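Running co-folding for adenosine-5'-triphosphate.
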Amino acid sequence: METILEMKKIHKSFFGVEVLHGVDFDVRKGECIAICGENGAGKSTLMKILTGIHNKFLGEIIYKGENIQHLSPLEIQHKGISMIHQELNLLDEMTVAQNIYLCREPKKNRLIDFKKMNKDAKQLLERLEEIDPKAKVKDLGIAKKQIVEIAKSLSYNADLIIMDEPTAVLTINETKMLFQLIRQLKKNGVAVVYISHRLKEIKEICDRVTILRDGTYITTKDIEEVSEKDIAELMVGREIEEVNQKEYSGSGNIALSVQHVSDDFLKDVSFELKEGEILGISGLVGAGRTELAEYIFGIRKAKKGEISVYGEHVSIKSPIDAIKYRIGFATEDRKGSGLFLDRSIRDNTNIVSMLKSKNIFNNRRKEEILAKNMIDVFRVKCQSTVQKIKNLSGGNQQKIVLSKWIAVSSKILILDEPTRGVDIGARKEIYDIINRLAEEGKSVIVISSDLTEVLAISQRVLVMHQGEIRGEIVGDEINEENIMILATGIGE
Ligand SMILES: Nc1ncnc2c1ncn2[C@@H]1O[C@H](COP(=O)(O)OP(=O)(O)OP(=O)(O)O)[C@@H](O)[C@H]1O
Ligand SMILES: [Mg+2]
């Protein structure tokens, strides 16, 4: 097949540190090619170079026979290359349609033709999922936001679409939809660059895979030539052990009891969490998992509902109350509420303890030690503890989200999509940490759309559907099929 893109010997440095060391990459017409590599390997950076976002680099980029390495992001878009970014880039106050057609609004008599714009947006979205083009982006959940991003990239009618972790926040059904769309795009001769840490998806949808390790090009293979395990081992350069779910070995005491929570959306939700237990909460997007977590953490008010922590009835009106009862909540939306992107790793890992402590003169040395410790434990790829969060790779940002809650020694931890965008090696490290926390008597709730993840660590699984807990699965019964039956409500 015809090669449409060639990137040759790409070198890129940030602040004097080289992160890409002469990477080669090529794309053929109508194919889906994956880029795989650990967190910080340079995947997003390579694609930002291609799309003109980073313009200081060495090397050559040839697209359809033409040198394009000096072009601006806008010029690149006009050449027919569009990108769905790993971090969402939408304007919250604007509508879905306005976001899709930003700066390219259809005009009528020199005024924006809203009718046409909304109609076009609706048509685009129909290929994906029912989303009202007139809805404000801020009112959408994170999965829907992601779908708007996908629709936006389609609206350019590009010949090459780069998807950087498009499914990290999507669940099975939406992922299926996206895959259908990719197949359709391929048929129309559109090439897709697909970046994901879900190797199963890569085997399913991609034709070839290019592997990067630490900013170095390793190899490119036809997808049939490699297994998931092969890809993982090429990425990390060593063998990887599987994670095995650990049996519950705690005291059996109830750490958290949530009773009869009801509001506009949640319907009489009750459950208990034991000391030292790892409880998975599964369900499709919009099932109410995040809402439940937000209620427990004091972000969301409910009409009815009671919470007890270690047998004591408590009133949690705000996150500060929740933190007082040693509840931690690592949110799924790291850009929105998980992290202070402009602050350093040190500040972010210490932020919760700063809130808790009455002493405003924090001890810099202590903070430094803690941050260093967390960087070690999570193997965060960074230059120093004062590096800004926004300059870390996506997966490494996620590790900081987790570390800040572990740093304050929460007793009950709610982790919403804890390994979103985290590579397979680091994912195993995070599972090991969760298992270790549970062994120490901490109780962990893992909310996850990634079934492989739910199966890998949960000792018990609750499945939610439309604001309700539809069922509980324990022990040997925990498998993909049983979860899906409850999650989709098929078994009714
Ligand atoms: N703006 C920046 N300033 C400084 N360093 C950066 C910047 N952007 C990326 N880096 C560094 O470049 C390296 C590659 O990062 P990149 O985001 O490309 O990784 P990635 O392969 O996309 O990882 P992930 O799977 O976590 O998304 C990392 O070490 C990262 O810290
Ligand atoms: Mg990335």
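Result summary
Residues 14, 19, 37, 39-45, 86, 381, 391-396, 421, 423 surround adenosine-5'-triphosphate (ligand 1) (CB under 6 Å).
The first strand starts at residue 3 and ends at 14.
Job closed.
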